[in-house]
Amino acid sequence: MCIVNCQFKKVQGIKDLTTGSIRRQLFNLAMPIMGTSFIQMAYSLTDMAWVGRLGSEAVATIGAVAILTWLISSFSLLNKVGAEVSVGQSIGAKDEENARTFASHNTTIALTLAISCGILFFLFARPVLSIYKLDREIEEHAITYLRIISTAFPFVFLTSAFTGIYNASGQSRIPFYISGTGLLLNMLLDPLFILVFKWGTTGAACATWIAEAFVVCLFIYQIRFKDRLMNGFPFLVSLKRLYTKKIFILGTPVALLNMFFAIINLLMGRTASTQGGHIGLTTLTAGGQIEAIAWNTSQGFSTALSTFTAQNYAAGKKDRLQGAYHATLVMTTVIGIFCTLLFVFFGSEVFSVIIPEREAYIAGGVFLRIDGYSMLFMMMEITIQGLFYGTGRTIPPAIISITFNTLRIPLAILLSSYLGMGIEGVWWAISITSILKGIVAFLWFRTLRKKIF
Prior knowledge:
mainly alpha; 86% helix
């Protein structure tokens, strides 16, 4: 058996997570995944930072589209999580052919979904953006930005699928290096296109498009010529019902909960715009990007836990699952405490790094202070989410997320309009529901603990 396993690892270029130090493996997996998450977040954050020099109205343009691109990125999680679990469990079971087949099916499905979404958003950019009720000039800029970005959806979906496949293989450093290269290119092109060429928000969209296309080219080169990952699995195949069904069963709940979260934020954006004008929308979108510092950090450990769990769960090594869960929870708790202190006491200073306009960063500081109280509970929710995903239980996190994110809309209206809290009522609705999600996720985990461990 050892000879077969070693040969499998050598041929496929993967890492076996069913033996060795739990903490070291989690940390080595989580750091690159976390870095990759930060890099993906940094695309829109970089755009906002440079466009912020043009004023809060320009940031509102980017922010309006950012929520929509978040919706699409959430859809692409179907293949990221589908790959991490299906390929990861196949590797844990030492099934080479299944690992290759699941990898190919994930990339094929990703490309199909991306092209469909790109066409829809390009054609219906105007009616989709009309939900914000923005000023005419801001809306026109947002429409142009969205149409450019929509043609890059195939790059977004393929990057997500490739990242999931590498994560499942225990090679999370590769997506980090490749995505980091793309970010550096985006950071170089942003000031050139936005300020030097004076293309404004259109320049930001073009810079992102080029960087995302470059990332996909690097992934293809890495898989096809450098790593020959899983013997250079094909990217396009004829879909088989058995594999397609499992990918959708695993990935759809995750994609739906994140898409639904994005839709809720789309509606929250409208409420924020109604209560606070373009400053309210700017605060929500830019503040959400800053909050993603905490979210992406914990998500790195959550995804590492999911990958670790997928291999060990398939291998029947449940004792390692318990150790991995406790180690991850300790690390995310430390991060949560740090983010709470940062947001509560230095919210305005943090926000001013993105938008130096005084009115905007004062409003942003209020948002971060209120949101900061929920950080520890958010860390708990995301950690348990990773454990559930790795065991194939993707439905419980979806139910929790969809239920309490839906609650945000009536709660925001109740607090802001009927109780007279104004825009702060919207921020409290976000914070309170995040706290509730963490509590319910923990209680749900306790009911399933014996079945998992």
